[in-house]
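Two quick folds needed for the group meeting slides. Do the first one here.
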Amino acid sequence: MFTLYQQKLRLPQWQKRRLHILERAKWRCAVCSCDDLELHVHHLKYDAGKDPWDYPDENFLVVCRPCHEERIHKEGALFRDLPDVGNYRVIRFEHADDYRCFQPISQFCAELSYFETPSDQFVELLTTELRHRLSTLFGKAGWEGDGDIECVFVPPFFVPDGYSNCETIFHVKQSNNGTSFVAMPPGFTLKLANDVYA
C-alpha cells in the first residue's frame, strides 16, 4: 500500500517535473557527477500542503542512488565534508587591508573532496551551510554580521604537521569599523615545517 505522498510521485505532474529537473542537471549526480547510475530527485525542503512538483528548481538536488543513501539519508551526511567550526578559535585583528590572500569560501567548498566533481548547485549548498556555521561562530565573537566571509589556504610547509595538505582558516572583515575576525582550527599554529628530507 502506497502512502498519499508515494501516490503523488506516480502522477504525471511529478513525472513531468522530475524529467525537467533531470534534464536541467544534465542527467548527472550533483555530488559525484556520475551519469551511469540510477538518479533520484531529492527535495531539499518540504512545505506543508505543497505537492511534490510545487517547488522552484533550486529546491531539487539530483543525486545518484549511492549518494542519496550515503550522503542525504544519513543524518548530517550531506554536509559531512564541512569542518565542525564550533570548536574553532576566533581572534580579532586590526586591520587587514591587503586582500590578496583571501579567497571566497565557495572555493573551499568546491575543493573539499579530492575524488568528486561536485555540481555548482551542490557547491552553493555547501557554501550556504558553511557561511551559516561561520556566521554563528563569528557572531559569538562580536561580529556584527556585515562583510564577506572568506578563507585563507595556508600552505603545508607553514603547518607543523601539514605534510602535503593546506590548512584552511576563515576570515571576515566588518565593514563599519574594519575589524577582522579570524577563525582557526583547534591547535592551529603557524610555524615553518621541519625539512623532512634533510
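Then this one, please, same format:
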Amino acid sequence: MTLNEARQILIASQPQRDDREDPLLQQALALVEKEPALGQWLERQRSFHDAASRSLRSIPVPVTLREQILASRKIVRPAQWWRHPLLWSAAALFLLFAGVNHWRSDAPPEDSLRTFRSRMVGAVLRQYTMDIVTNDMTQVRSFLATRNAPADYSLPDKLSRLPVSGAGVLSWQGQKVSMVCLDSAQHGTLFLFVVDRASLSEGPSAARDFQPVSKLATVSWTTGSQVYVLAGSGGREALEQYF
C-alpha cells in the first residue's frame, strides 16, 4: 500500500467509529506505525477535524430559525395539466382542424345549384361575350343546337315575350350551358342560363327559388330535364313579374 492510498483510507474512516476490523484500514494504520511522516499527517487531520467540530457545536441556533426556513421555503405546486403550453398548442391545432372541417362541411358541393348560380353570375359580372347577336329566337335556338347546348328550353309565357338580343355557350362540370340574353324595358339585360338537370347534385328547393347572388337577383326552377336560372338587376320584384 502506498502513502497516498493510506491517506485516502484514513480520511474516509470515521474517528468515533471502530473500523479496525477493516483489512484496508488495518494496513493503513500499520503503515502509520512505520512511517513517522504519515503519523504526523494523520495527527494534523484529526486535530483539524476536532477543532472544526467544536466550532460548529459552539454556534448558537437562532430561536426563529425554523420560522425563517419555513418562510423562505418556496412552495412548488405540481403543474396543472390544463395550463401546459404543449396542451394548448395541441388544442389550438384541434380547433383549427375542426374549423377547417366545419368550413368544408358548410361549403356547397362543386356540382350544387348554389355553386352553379354563383359561377354563372360571376361569369356575366366579370365580362360576358355573346357568341351570336340577333333578335331572332329561332336563330338563337339553332345556334345553341349546333354547339350541343340546350336549345329546346321552354319559357314562362311572360318571359318568352321579352325580345332576345343574343346568346352564348358556357361550360359547367363538362356540360354545355346555354346563356340567352333577354331585354327588359326597365332593368336592362336579363341572363337566362339553361343546363341539364343531371349535371347538378340538387335542383331548386322550391317551384321558384329566389336567391340574391352578388349584385344580381336570381330565380331558379326546373322544367322537365332542365334547370333554369334567370339573373338580373332590380331585385326579386323585378323577376317575379315574369311568372
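Slide caption for protein two: The chain has a mean pLDDT of 81.
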